[in-house]
Design goal:
binds zinc ion, 24 strands, seven-stranded mixed beta sheet, seven-stranded antiparallel beta sheet, globular, Jelly Rolls, binds 4-deoxy-L-threo-hex-5-ulosuronic acid
């Protein structure tokens, strides 16, 4: 079963006026991982699409998605898949890949229908593409590892870059996940924006009762989303994206837009935030 929800692009002046319920309706992705279903959020931020596929005993195929009006979803798109569940298998273009927890799969434009099987909980990210790059399974050891932060500032973390220019080529997608070192709680502080690229965070590996206080909004108009395990925050180009967890967490960041330069960020120091 496939269900798709559309999220329109929100102007920052509109976002300032929103209460909790509206902020969550526009910027939070809840219930993406439902057993036996593929659930997608088709956004108008660079037409970036995110979602979840949970096979739960029977294979699930991602093929035609009405919103794109193409013969198959990947006809003019690339896809990044992260398995945040148990062992699973993904098949496309007559090939298949065994995916363990934390493995990332890149499927290039034109890969055709994609089938998900096994105990995997597959996080899906997709953006329009202009050429085909080879399909590739990327393991944590193949990722580019960047250590950031310090225990004194409670933000010691490891940024694992998977779909990233130092590892492989892609059209728009840049994707990886950041693991917090035990005892550290803050991600992406100092915060940043990048008007050239939108971004989405998918928080996972959290205890069910834990929450991340995710900060969003223009740097001088911050708002927050209280986020549970396996929920996503949509970050428009004008928004910061940063958070502090009550307990441990990992988050998948994925971006699409005008460049694939991960370091192209406009930093905002804590003293400038409001
Ligand atoms: O544009 C890059 C993204 O916001 C994240 O990769 C940042 C991040 O993982 C972190 O600082 O912890
Ligand atoms: Zn960012």
């Amino acid at each position: 079963m496939l269900s798709v929800e559309t999220r329109h692009a929100i102007h920052p002046e509109h976002a300032r006026t929103m209460g909790t319920e509206e902020l969550r309706r526009h910027f939070l992705g809840e219930g993406l991982f439902a057993p036996g279903e593929i659930r997608l959020i088709y956004t108008h931020y660079d037409r970036f699409t995110l979602g979840g596929a949970v096979p739960d005993g029977a294979p699930l195929t991602l093929d035609k998605v009405e919103e794109t009006r193409t013969a198959t979803f990947l006809e003019r798109r690339e896809l990044g898949v992260v398995n945040i569940g148990g062992p699973g298998k993904v098949s496309a273009s007559g090939e298949s890949w065994e995916m363990g927890r934390g493995d990332v799969l890149y499927l290039g434009m034109g890969a055709g229908p994609v089938t998900f099987e096994g105990e995997g909980r597959f996080y899906l990210t997709s953006a329009p593409a202009h050429r085909t790059f080879p399909n590739r399974l990327i393991k944590l050891e193949d990722a580019n590892r960047v250590e950031l932060g310090a225990a004194e500032t409670s933000n010691k973390r490891i940024i694992n870059q998977f779909i990233h220019p130092t590892v492989m080529e892609s059209c728009q997608l840049v994707l990886g996940y950041t693991q917090l070192v035990e005892g550290s709680v803050w991600n992406t502080m100092p915060a940043h924006t990048h008007d050239r690229r939108m971004e989405a965070y998918l928080y996972w590996g959290m205890a069910p009762e834990s929450r991340v206080m995710h900060l969003m909004g223009e740097p001088q108009e911050t708002r927050h989303l209280v986020i549970a395990n396996e929920e996503a925050a949509l970050s428009p180009p004008w928004s910061i994206h940063s958070g502090a967890g009550i307990g441990g967490y990992t988050f998948i960041w994925a971006m699409a837009g005008d460049n694939v330069d991960y370091t192209d960020m406009d930093f905002v120091q804590p003293a400038e935030l409001k």
